[in-house]
Amino acid sequence: MGQSFRRMLTIVRKEWLHIIRDPRTLGLVIIMPVMMLFLLGYAVANDVKDIPLAVADLSHTDASRTLVEKLTVSEFFKYTHVAQSENEILEMLDAGTVKAGLYIPENFGRVVSTGGVGTIQFYIDGSNPTVAQTAQLAAETISQSMSQEILVQRLERSGTGMHLSLPVDARIRYLYNPDMKRMNFMIPGLVAIILQIQALLLTAFAIVREREQGTLEQLIVTPVRSWELMLGKILPFVVVAFVNVIMTVTVGAVWFGVKVVGSIALLAGLSLIFLLGSLGLGVLISNISKTQMQAMYMASFIMMPSFILAGLLFPRENMPWLAYYAGYLLPVTYFLEIVRGIILKGAEFFTLWNWIWPMAVFSIVVFFASVLMFHKRL
Fold first, then answer.
1. What is the pTM of this model?
2. Mean predicted confidence (pLDDT) in 120-149
């Protein structure tokens, strides 16, 4: 029994030496749970608020200004953009600049002040059901609250013999996802995440595996140049990634009914730009990592924030300012808006330009940086 215990302790000592001799992997293993806790805590433990709102107030009266003020002080909405027309609101919603829009017609204040019913149009981006339902509830509650205040004022002026009707008629219209199906929100996001996972993990593992198996040394003695070796290894994964995107989009359209409203050619072209950045990140990870285990943990440090901070599962408007702006450092944040814009809204190139150019700059810089850092070495 004593000998068995000593033999076991010998194995324990051996394994512990393996762990402490690889401080990089040990550090990643320890830091990962803490990072997950912080990310999930910030992303999940908050109510939906500060929904970006565009307002087209053509009335310019006390009644219209009071309505806008009630919406913004509620903390559900954040008045971010001033629109001059109803069409301008719709353009902002198409581009993903705002998630809700309020159109107040020119006669609103006059109708309300003369005892009539003033109609307002409230547009909500229904692509994210969580945000859309919160926006609907807040808009209805606030408009009804204002109606009650106006009714009280009318009663105080005219007595109780007048006809009672709500003076503010808030008509709410859901755009892009009128049935409020959660799957319509998830499928386009999964396209982006699948593309990143395929490019990031497979590229990093492929190069690290060559280094672990010693086959990279055989390639060094060949006339193959560094950039030729890198491109030769990652181009097959470009094909694999595009096949997975095609399959995901096809299954989403045929099985789940999430059809591509916009241009498939535009979706493919912008996917290629995003893919360059993801492949570049994979090559950078492979340059730093010595083992596949290290590559997996380093890739997780990119994928975990992408799942949480980019807006795949949780609305970014919920998050504290630090987490919200950190999401802009992730290229998948921009690509998610692009994919959802094309698939759900049918958005065009120039409509999505504010999301395209940051993603393109990041992808090109990271890809060429990874090419320069990649060397034919063990």
1. 0.74
2. 81
